[in-house]
Structure formats: C-alpha cells, structure tokens
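Bench notes, bay 3.
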Amino acid sequence: MPEGFEVRLPDGVRLHGETTGPVDAEVTAVLVHGWTLDGRSWHRQLAGIGEQLGDRVRLVTYDARGHGRSSCMALRTATLAQLGDDLVAVLDEVAPTGPVVLVGHSMGGMTVMEYAHRHPAHFAARTAGLVFVATTAEGHTHTAYGLSPRIARLIRLAETTGAGVLARCGAWRPPRALLRALRPSLRWLLFGDRCDPTDIRLVTSAVAHASLRSIGGFRASIGTQHRLDTLAELGDVPAAALVGDRDRLTPPPCAESIAQVLPTTELTVCPGAGHMLMMERPDEVTAAIVTVLRQALATRDATSSKRLQRD
C-alpha cells in the first residue's frame, strides 16, 4: 500500500507525496507529473512497475506546489526553476541515498531538466536514468496545437494573456461546473484518437485541485525554458523519450530534439496518441520506465560486484 509523506519547503510550502516499496530498495524511481495534474496521473505505471520489478525498486510520486494536495505558493515562486529546487528537496527528504531514475511528464520533464541545470553536481551524483514523457526542452517553440501557424499564434496570445489573469487569482480552484463544460476542449487538447472516459474524468479532477495561481503562474516559465544545452552535457546516462504523433502541446519534434542532444535516449513515437501518454499508452510508458530501471539496476549490480572483488 502507498505511504503518504510531506515535505516542508523553506518558503512554507508543503508538498504531498506517496511512496511504494521498501525504503532500502536498490533504486528509487521518482515520477513527476505535468502542469495542472497531480501524482495520480501515474497510477497505471505504479502498478505495472511494481508487478515487474517488485521490491527492487521504490516508487515516489508527489504533487507539485499549487497542485493536488500540496499547498499553494507565492506567485513569484511559480517557476520551473523553483520546481527544480523542490525536486532536490524531495530527493533529500524521501530518497537521500542510492541511485534514482527520474521520470517526467510535460512540466515534470522540464522540472527534471531544471534540476539538472541548477544542481549539476547533485544531479550527477544521484541520477541513474531519465524518462521524458511528452515533454520539451524548447519552451513553446514547437507548440502549434495542430493548427496553422497564424491560428496557433492567436491561441498562444489568448492563452498567455489568460494565464496572467489566472495567476493573480491566488489559491482559488477552478469551479467544477466550468471544468465539466470544458471537458470536450480538454479532450481535444490533451488526447489523441482514443480517450477512456475515466481518464478525462481523472484529468478534470486534477485540474479542479490545481490553484488558479499555479494554472496561470507557471505558463510564462514553461513557454520560455530552453535546456537542450543542459541535456547535451549529461553524458551517458540511460534515457528514454516518448511522444504521441497527435500531441498538440509537445509534438514529435520536441522529443526528437531531446534524442538528438542526448544520444543515449531511446525514442518512441506512439501513433494516434496525444499528450497524455501515461493514460493513452500505459504499457509503452511503463515498458520504457522499466527498461531504464533495469539498466540502472544492472549498473548498480556491476558496481557492487567490482567492489566485492576489490575487497
């Protein structure tokens, strides 16, 4: 059964999270959710990884500041840089030792990149693998919503303007009645050819638990982040990147550029899938995570064997 935890950050924000698996597991996997979502978005991966790797791996999810069951924050901290710092705090609190595999969806992937950029020594000492799910290292460079460039520019202008308004609305949450009315729009924006009704309900529930400040406040940082140079410096860390060919927010060029600068990346393009790959293609996402985890476990086994031989 998952065990809950709480991390209190220096600025007073409380992060809620859950762990599954033994504290002394050989490798810890930390799964970081996307913008306006929460840790529940990984529920299929948590079940699948546990079935395949058992007690060798500890699984950690948490709700980013302003999301899910975590507390709201000051508007000035609604940045990817702050999320990168928060990830360090989670690791130090929940998994202070041993190798970790970092898995990030959308904003979660950008959080992982920010952690690598801002804390390179910490990252290098701890990280044994990376999985990027429907994310980008180039801000909104490739985001065209599947539309013509002119219409995409208009939508982005409306989106960023609206985000600025929402950012000033504080800790209020979106009205559930409004979100129910917006379900068709969320379904179009986030999903590809197929969408299970339970998945769109989960997404709507997650958005309903995100503060308006976080929904609006993180938009500017997400749009301007560029971390390809950071990825190019990561060396031979095992990695995977997955993207749906119907993704309107982080289309295939986003994942392709990650794979180009990080040559260890195994790139998977999922036909007919959109932005919510954990739900739309759970088996493919789980398989990619398990593959990277197995590589991390093999490296740990080899290191332990060499240490025994020296002793």
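Next record in the batch:
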Amino acid sequence: MYGKAFAPEYQGALTTLSVNSSLTDVLAAGAEQLRAAEEAGEHGEAARSGLAVAEAHRRLGQVREADRAWKASYRAARDAGDLAAMAWALWSGGTLARQRGAFPLARRLLGLAAELGEHGGDIVVRGYSLAGLAETGRIQGDYQAVARLHEQLLAEARRRGEARHTVWALEGIAQIHRNSGSHDTAFALFEEAAEIAAGAEDRRGHAWALRGLADIVSVRDGDTERALALLSEAEETCRAMKLSGALAYNHKMRGNVLYRAGRYPEARALYEQALAEFRAMREPRGEALSRLGLAKSLARLGRDRAETAAELDDLAGVLERIGLRHAREMVSRAQVELGVETPGDTSSGTVGHAAAAGATR
C-alpha cells in the first residue's frame, strides 16, 4: 500500500538524497549545489538547494543559519517567479518558527505557504504546510481545533500512499489521544506508525513512533525497562542521522520514564542533559519542559521547598508566554504533587506534567 518514503524538501539536483541521509551530508551537498547555482545565476535551483540547506541547519539545531537560509531560499524563488519554491521556503521558515516557540509567526508563515502551494499547483507543499499548522495547534494543546485537520490529512496521505506523511499524521493523532488519557488508542496508532515507517524505510518517523510507544509503555504499563529499550533503539537513529532536536526530546522522555519509576538521580541527569541540548539549539519549548522535569526531580531529591516553589512559578510564566496551552495546569499539578501550592492556586487542569512533558516533538 505504501511506497518507500521520500523527502520532497530535497529538490532540484538534490532529489537523489534519501529521507535517511545524514543531515551533515545533506548540508554539505546542499551548500555545494547552492554555490554552483548562485555562480550560474540559476535562481530556481538556488532556491531549491537553499531549502535543503535550511532544513539541514534547522534539524541540526543551528537556528541562526537556518533562519538565514530559508529567507535566502525565498528571495531566490521570488526572483525566479517560482510560487511552489516560495511556498517551500515559507514552510521551512514556519517550521523553524514553531521550533523556536514563535507560534503566531509559525501560523502566519505556514498559512502563506499553504496558499502559495495551492496557487503554484504543488499539492505536496500545501499538505506539508497544513500539517505544520495542525502540529502547531496540537503542540499548543488546541486539540479540538486541529484534531479534524489531522484526520483529514491522514486520509489524504493514505489515499496517496504517502508513507512519511501518513506516519506523521498517525503520530500526531496518537499524541492527542495520549494527552487526553486514551492510552490504548494512542498505543495502537503509534504502533501502526512504527510499522509503516519501518516498511517504508522512514527512519526518522520510526524513531518518533518508538518514542511515543516508550511513553505509553511507561505511563500505562509501568514497564520501565521496555520503555528505555525502545528509547535506546530510537536514539541510535537520532545519532546516525544527526537529529539534534529529536535526540534532545528522546533524552527528555528518558527523564520522564526514569522519574515515573522513582529513579530520581538518573532522571535529574537526563533532564540536565536535555536542558543543555535545548539551550544549545535555542529551543524554548523543550527547554521549559526539561526545566519542569528537572525541578520535580530536584524536589524529590531534597531541594528546598521555597526554591522549588519559585522555580515552578517562574516556569508557569515562561510556558504561558511562549503560548503552550495548559501551562498553568501542568505547573499546578507539579505544585500539588510536591506540596508547594501557592495560596489561592487551586487549579487542577486536565493534562498533567507527565502527559504534557511527553506531548511534544
């Protein structure tokens, strides 16, 4: 039913690159082709090779370089009068904005990308841009608004037999179910995503699916060792492909699993590692969630209650500022769990820290 996964963001002379190509290899090939296109005055090719450069930088956590690259790709596409290439550049910029926690900008750029993709006759970039909008809403916790869009995109991907996008949609829907407490449904969806990704040789999608399965196995079954084994398998792919962001989220999830098992010193070490990784790539969402896990671990290890309370209060403000829904509920649950509630703070929410900390890529 599904063919081999491919990477539509690798375009022009770079279509021979695999979805599983190491990002350092993608960056080297893209930069070389970009230089050649610029020297030849080929704006269209410069736009498409520049897109690969932007995406490699983004996935490597090199934010400033990625920002420069997608903007240069857009300018080259505009000079070439190529609407589809302009749309791809905007998609890259919108994805980077979401990664940086700039959600309003992400929605604006991704919306423009979807419109240009439609006008330019490129259904793939239109679909990817709509998927980006759906993922942005999901990450913020606006499940009602984006659940239907996730389902629509899943149906379209299945109809086209597009494995990579089917895997993405399944994982997004699974995450919504997981955060809503439907663990069995989430597990089945993650399991299907893992099977499709493996069959299509989509190693990145497979790694994310394994991470989702590890989360469910930990929170639902309490099977710590199986969860850690799944994360170790996923980590091998992250390291082989140089997936810096995915690796940081893998480490954060490992912290979650260890925390749930009461292995607080180990959890603290993993949260500290993830925090350093997120800070290095200027990823505020992952940084805040790692701080939350670290604060809980330190509290369990005897940290002063006043320091814990101050840390959680600060985190509440940070999470709200970057636009993550249920931020107050996440912190409130941590305050209740640790016995450091502030006067008048009685909100409980529907999504706890364990759910929310595992909710994002």
